[in-house]
Design goal:
Elements: H1 7-16, E1 23-30, H2 34-44, E2 48-54, E3 60-66, E4 72-76, E5 87-93, H3 97-106, E6 115-116, E7 122-127, E8 133-138, H4 144-147, E9 162-169, H5 172-182, E10 186-191, E11 200-204, E12 210-215, H6 222-228, E13 230-234, H7 238-247, E14 259-260, E15 266-271, E16 277-281
Parallel strand pairs: 1-4, 5-8, 9-12, 13-16
Antiparallel strand pairs: 1-5, 2-3, 3-4, 6-7, 7-8, 9-13, 10-11, 11-12, 14-15, 15-16
Helix pairs in contact: 1-3
Length: about 290
């Protein structure tokens, strides 16, 4: 005898399951000059181009730079002078895209349809309360990502792991209702520039990486957005990473020097030619 489950019961069952999310797949940024961007991401940070896609006229649509077998940086050309937001989207990897889509729909979200991307992978998207597009991607055999398996993993890479991505959040309660209650992220740390000011909340993804909420009130300036919407690359030794950067042409200026952050970890900040921040950070507390 088959049991007919009500919509309400299905929603409860969907909410009780862990989501099949394995971590950050890529952070995607808009750039105004691809040659200048490559100088930063390839020459300074040491990441090689994995693959690129062009439109029917032969113009570049986007390019992927490889961090490790499962994580990439995606760069889009065509950033306009009046565009203040330079992060296009954040992609999270899943091993079971159909199941994930079903579970998110069961939790009251409205995910877009699962489709085959031009890069050969399957994906769908949802938007968070602040309008950030979250893309969920399942890597497919024969895709651009999988064709580079075992390649482009040289010693020039300043880091071998994309640890977190920072996103802007105007309403913390709304963000928690989305990321914690709907997606199953878990808060691991919160802090700010002083003990009396809350500006950052770290939310761990089921796969182990995390998203950093960059809290704000009012409309952030272009410069503030460039710092807030960032990616963080993990390095085992910040001083060794800094020496490599100096050897590759990083100016020996105070703003680039390593320091201990409010989270008690060694870190340093870099900015691409369009002002998007890349943070390098050690995994453990400073000694």
């Amino acid at each position: 005898m088959r049991l007919l489950l009500s919509g309400a019961l299905l929603a409860v069952l969907a909410g009780a399951q862990d989501l099949p999310i394995s971590g950050i797949a890529h952070g995607a940024f808009l750039v105004s000059d691809m040659d200048k961007a490559r100088q930063f991401y390839t020459r300074l940070l040491g990441y090689e181009g994995a693959f690129a896609l062009k439109d029917e006229q032969g113009n570049l649509r986007y390019t992927f730079l490889k961090i490790n077998e499962d994580q990439y940086i995606e760069l889009f050309p065509g950033l306009k002078p009046e565009q203040d937001r330079r992060m296009s989207h954040l992609a999270l990897a899943t091993p079971e895209i159909e199941k994930l889509h079903e579970l998110l729909a069961g939790r009251g979200l409205a995910p877009g349809e699962v489709r085959q991307g031009r890069d050969g992978n399957r994906n769908f998207s949802v938007k968070d309360p602040d309008g950030m597009r979250l893309e969920f991607v399942e890597y497919q055999p024969g895709s651009g990502v999988r064709q580079t398996h075992g390649k482009l993993l040289g010693q020039t890479r300043i880091s071998e792991r994309l640890r977190h991505v920072g996103i802007t959040v105007a309403n913390l309660d709304a963000a928690l209702a989305f990321y914690r209650d709907k997606l199953g992220f878990r808060e691991t740390w919160r802090g700010g520039p002083s003990d009396n000011e809350l500006r950052w909340v770290n939310m761990q993804i089921p796969g182990g990486d995390y998203v950093e909420f960059m809290l704000h009130t009012g409309a952030p300036t272009r410069g503030q957005l460039g710092s807030m919407l960032h990616m963080c690359l993990e390095v085992p030794d910040i001083q060794a990473a800094y020496r490599k950067l100096l050897a590759r042409g990083l100016p020996a200026e105070d703003r680039f020097k390593p320091r201990v952050g409010r989270n008690q970890r060694w870190l340093l900040n870099l900015f691409d030619p369009d002002g998007s921040r890349t943070e390098l950070m050690e995994p453990g507390p400073a000694k």
